[in-house]
Write a structure and sequence with these properties.
The protein has two domains: 2-185 and 296-327, no CATH class; 217-291, no CATH class. Helices cover 34% and strands 19% of the residues. By secondary structure, it is α+β, with helices and mostly antiparallel strands. It is globular and about 60 Å long. It contains eleven helices and 15 strands. The strands form five sheets. Strands 1-3-2-4 form a four-stranded mixed sheet. A three-stranded antiparallel sheet has the order 6-5-15. A three-stranded antiparallel sheet has the order 8-13-12. The protein starts with a helix and ends with a strand.
Length: 328
């Protein structure tokens, strides 16, 4: 089980964090918790220099832009993660679910980083980059992103994180690899279909609330030459062969000019929103129509928000998306 979990996270590092785009256009706020922490300096925004005990609930975070490792309390770090990974105006219970998920994921990575330090991040526990771990935004960056709404948005996120910080999702007494994504295609996906290897708690579940999102369907259009160049096709004609799908609905395999590709590979090559797609030829162009956003494994952030709007609490959301886990 442990080997499979490690395999899943290694492959998943580069796929796990599609949701960042959802933060670009925040809506008007509607809540303002009572107390905002002092955020007047970068040191308070990003933590202090590294000299923390591994037994403390702190994280050594590699800040790529500054090429620096800083020590952060769990509360400060997870606040910056949730602010980066989920829209601040999502339902409070969804924000709490994200906080617990991100805290668990950080613990999962920290345990492995302590066992096998990574020189590329200066032996820190975790990186602030979504392409390798999960995203983290400093208060300085959030002020630039949120502008005049910073105090309200930050207070809202901080309050949600504070309510659940320290809660951990475990399976067989170990923190889970708490994968999450922006929006499923109506069902989440088995880990085995995306990264290979069965992981008992990362299996397909219903997430039909995602279907009502206005950005559920997206199209991506490529000229014939762009399509051929992307796949290094030199033949005069493009031939689309057999397409197979998983039970949840994403493309499992697609054959193009005699070569078989996984749906995940096509998503990566063409920078599609998800591996759940159809492919059509229209007016000489190749048109992908996708459903959902992200890799589809684990918690759907949009789905979590949809469940919260129906009255689900943060722990009920987590128990829905992760199979046979315990929250401690």
């Amino acid at each position: 089980m442990k080997k499979i979990g490690i395999l899943c996270v290694v492959v998943g590092f580069f796929l796990i964090f599609a949701p960042l785009l959802a933060l670009i256009n925040p809506q008007k706020p509607h809540a303002h918790p009572p107390q905002l922490p002092d955020t007047s300096t970068d040191e308070k925004n990003e933590g202090s220099d590294i000299n923390s005990s591994e037994n403390d609930d702190t994280f050594l975070v590699y800040i790529k832009d500054k090429d620096k490792v800083v020590s952060m309390s769990a509360l400060d770090y997870i606040t910056g993660v949730v602010a980066a990974e989920m829209p601040a105006l999502y339902n409070t219970e969804a924000l709490k679910a994200q906080a617990v998920t991100s805290y668990t994921y950080a613990h999962y990575i920290r345990l492995r980083s302590i066992e096998n330090p990574d020189p590329s991040i200066k032996n820190a526990h975790i990186s602030d980059q979504s392409t390798s771990h999960q995203a983290y935004y400093s208060n300085e960056r959030l002020k630039q992103l949120w502008g005049k709404d910073f105090d309200t948005y930050y207070s809202r996120v901080r309050s949600a994180v504070s309510a659940v910080i320290g809660k951990l999702i475990v399976y067989e007494n170990e923190p889970i690899m708490a994968a999450f994504h922006a929006m499923s295609w109506g069902k989440t996906e088995d880990c085995s279909n995306v990264w290979g290897g069965d992981v008992s708690y990362l299996v397909s579940v219903d997430s039909s609330g995602d279907k009502s999102n206005e950005n559920f369907i997206n199209t991506f259009t490529f000229s014939e030459q762009e399509f051929k160049n992307t796949l290094s096709i030199t033949a005069p004609k493009v031939q689309i062969g057999k397409i197979t799908y998983t039970n949840a609905g994403m493309v499992n395999t697609i054959t193009i000019n005699g070569k078989e590709y996984s749906g995940m590979k096509i998503r990566s090559l063409f920078a599609l929103a998800s591996p759940c797609f159809t492919l059509d030829v229209k007016n000489g162009n190749y048109v992908f129509t996708t459903k959902g956003k992200g890799h589809g494994v684990g918690m759907s952030q949009n789905g979590a928000n949809a469940l919260a709007s129906k009255g689900y609490t943060w722990d009920e959301i987590i128990m829905h998306y992760y199979n046979n886990v315990t929250i401690i």
